[in-house]
Amino acid sequence: MYDAELLRERLTSVLEALERIPRRFADIDSPSDFTDTDSGVDRMDAICMALVAVGEEFKAIDRKTGGTILAQYPAIDWRGVMGVRDFLAHGYFRIDADLLFTICRDNVPPLIETVRQMIEDLQRPSPGLD
Predict the structure, then answer these.
(1) How many Cα atoms within 13 Å fall on the side-chain side of residue 6?
(2) Domain range spanning residue 16?
(3) Quick one: which of 81, 88, 101 has its CA closest to 25?
(4) Cα dihedral 105/111/113/114 (nearest 10)
(5) Can you spell out the DSSP letters for 92-105?
(6) pLDDT tens digit string along 101-127?
(7) Percent of the chain, pLDDT > 70?
(8) Does a structural domain hold residue 75?
(9) pLDDT (tens digit, 9 = 90+) per residue, 38-68?
(10) Count of other CB atoms within 10 angstroms of residue 125
């Protein structure tokens, strides 16, 4: 069992971090936009930090909920989300701009929508949550 209110708060923090990524990714049209200018590198750094924080929080959520919450949203590759955190945190100087570009373009938008749905679902009373 876990505290639904605390989980909503944690997911809200995750959502806020995730929603910063599209703003930081705006005007990035190709992977080289991350590496060709100081501004691009700054954006890459900021996005990576958000992804590390998000992945770490999902690891904690998964532990605290015994894997039950994330399993309810199978459209997201949760192991991948958490794995990106590990890769970025432990291999920071080996960041692949192509991979980061793909994550921002293809994976972050559905993750944002899923986290919004999770928060909404937690607003509804459900047996066994508190």
Answers:
(1) 10
(2) 4-123
(3) 101
(4) 160
(5) GGG--HHHHHHIII
(6) 999 999 999 999 999 999 999 988 655
(7) 94
(8) yes
(9) 999 999 999 999 999 999 999 999 999 999 9
(10) 8
